[in-house]
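Following up on my earlier thread - several people asked me to post the actual chain instead of describing it. Fair enough. Here it is, all 199 residues.
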Amino acid sequence: MASSDETLEEFFPKYNPPIRAHKHTCVGLGMEVMKRLKVLEKDFPGNYVEWHERETRSSVLKERLSLVYVARAYLTAVAVTEKRNLVWDLRSLLARDPKGRLSAGIYFPLKLKDQQFTMFFDNNNGKQRKKLKFDTFLELQKIPDEVVDEVEQCNDQLRLRDGELLSVLKKLATIMADQEYMAELLQVNDRIVQLSAGN
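Reply from S.P.:
Thanks for posting it. Predicted structure:
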């Protein structure tokens, strides 16, 4: 238990969880976060806790700052992971196989121009990877049949209800087309990156 005069940095020293590419699961990390945040909620009141991440791939260090929302009770390990990604410039909806490998999904960066996403799934011809523009999904009746078929295949592999992925893509297309909202979202993200640059 943290004492009341202990600083956040003293209580929450640089945390280096044992995450390996072949063993990482969000559940273990989420459980560890839950244990630490429960004490922080009492000793460090407020709605958010800063979460500093360091990721090294091929000797390239990438640092990120996320905000963890702690004002409400803990729900699930996935909820904690989602809350710490309040503002993030890469969004995804993914499915994994029993071994943890990506099997299907969509992902896309948040940007003002040239808004597109990548959709991947398996079909009779093997792995498929398609880049599609969001504006294709603004009017559902104008989507080419071939694209609808591919979205339905991905939908099934994501284990969503019939038509759910198409509905999600329509909503995303509408959001991404709102230039004012997107500009504000990207501005908030840039500000967080600037604030975390010196830390």
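DSSP finds six helices and six strands in the chain. That should answer part of your original question.
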